[in-house]
Amino acid sequence: MTASAEEPPVIVVGAGLAGLSVALRLAPQPCVVLSPTRLGLGAASAWAQGGLAAALGADDSPALHAQDTIAAGAGLCDPAVVRSVTAAAPEAVRWLQALGARFDGDEGRFDLGLEGGHRRRRVVHAAGDGSGAEILRAVLDAVARTPSITVHEDTRVVELDLSPDGAVRGVLTRGPRGTELLRSARVVLATGGSGGLWGCTTNPLTATGSGLALAARAGAALRDLEMVQLHPTALDVGVDPAPLVSEAVRGAGAVLVTGSGERLLSGDGDLAPRDVVARAVDAELRRGGRVLLDATGGVAAGFPALVAACRRAGLDPDREPVPVRPAAHYHCGGVLVDDRGRTTVPGLWAVGEVASTGLHGANRLASSSLLEAVVCGGLVAADLAEDDEHAARWVAPGRGVTPGPARPLPARAPRWLRTLMDRHLGVVRDGPGLALATGTLQRRLDRVGLDGLDDPSLVALLVARSACAREESRGGHLRRDRPGTDALARHTFIDRAAVSAPATTTVAPPMTARRSA
């Protein structure tokens, strides 16, 4: 390909809410969005049933919202990031409204919902449990109206192209036009999560941590990868992926019961943080019991996605409790970024679920993922718009083609890997199980080398090594052999250089990638 001396557009890898928020906020600056599927398909954002948390009620404030977020994060949140994001939440809702998102409520008032870990009603929903789909619809409509955004569909990024000094200078893609090298000194990872690595997940099965693998292979630092949030209420009807039952259903009055009809959790326990509820559900299942969600008495009627999923399985949630179980839902850890979304690799930004911003800590507060995608998408776009550093160093490369990697690029994780992750990196973990999982994956690495190892296996190995390094129980990481929580909170770090060695831990708060003044 022939490159121009002119600075090329920003490249955004991923077409969910986080990536498209960056692209829209960048306008009219040119931007290329690379979507691994047809636009709007396969994005986890559209699957989000919970809404967007924002302090909009008369009895609420961003300060209270921040306190609840930090409490849920179990010591690993960055308080400055939390305060920044919760303060920006009301504006994020208004921005989405301006794009055309239709939220529940009337006469300009929001119908605010209550979800686990929140002490106030502050969750803005759309169509009951269809928030993600409605928000993404509005964003996609806005993208279609924005001429500065170019979308390449069915295009996967298989490698980040780096200069000799380790800075990003483009991406290698595979798509309808074959293998292609797209040049840019500014690349944003917005690739979503890794839930598809687990046997029971609420995520698209293609969500196997591709962005984590890209970043790791490029030498970026990764943080707290062991912190994978399992949602306590996935519909347990043998469907893969498992249909999510929104936390808002419990907020509206549904309760968890055992197979004998007794309340699983007393008092307000049904609305405890997700890690607490998931552990209670898992414990009952391990005892050989059943856990059901009782949304009878008219509660289920307000949640069309729940009703539809149940009816597809031959269940009627209006008349009978429905079976639920925990499922891999959200990756709280990710690529380490600073408060502008910059990673430790020059020219590489990360946003959304793939990034570790410091907002979620060890356990994400309900309805914070869509919020983070919009707010941090705006912060990344602002930094890109003001980024003279990379524009100044951009030098157009000569003609040339970078060969593609020899490793396999599966769209989904194999069954053996998903079983391994469920068994040893689920709700409850222990040292022997983590050692077994790590050893299994390490032997695969030893056989084929890093360049030959497929991305799902690489990400699983990074998660397992990080979990081995955390010899305590905290947030979403519960070890039966290490049930106590350390007095000092520590972050777990790992990168490409440490892929064959244990991850490191550092007392929090750590130094971030490059924190702006």
TrEMBL record:
GO MF terms, alphabetically ordered: L-aspartate oxidase activity; steroid dehydrogenase activity, acting on the CH-CH group of donors
E.C. number: 1.4.3.16
Cofactor(s) needed by this chain: FAD
Pfam families xref list: FAD_binding_2 (PF00890), Succ_DH_flav_C (PF02910)
Catalytic activity field: L-aspartate + O2 = iminosuccinate + H2O2
SUPFAM superfamilies per UniProt: FAD/NAD(P)-binding domain, Succinate dehydrogenase/fumarate reductase flavoprotein C-terminal domain, Succinate dehydrogenase/fumarate reductase flavoprotein, catalytic domain
Alphabetical keyword list: FAD, Flavoprotein, Oxidoreductase, Pyridine nucleotide biosynthesis
Database matches in InterPro entries: FAD-dep_OxRdtase_2_FAD-bd, FAD/NAD-bd_sf, Fum_R/Succ_DH_flav-like_C_sf, Fum_Rdtase/Succ_DH_flav-like_C, NadB, Succ_DH/fumarate_Rdtase_cat_sf
Key word Flavoprotein present: yes
GO biological process, one term: 'de novo' NAD+ biosynthetic process from L-aspartate
Name of the protein: L-aspartate oxidase
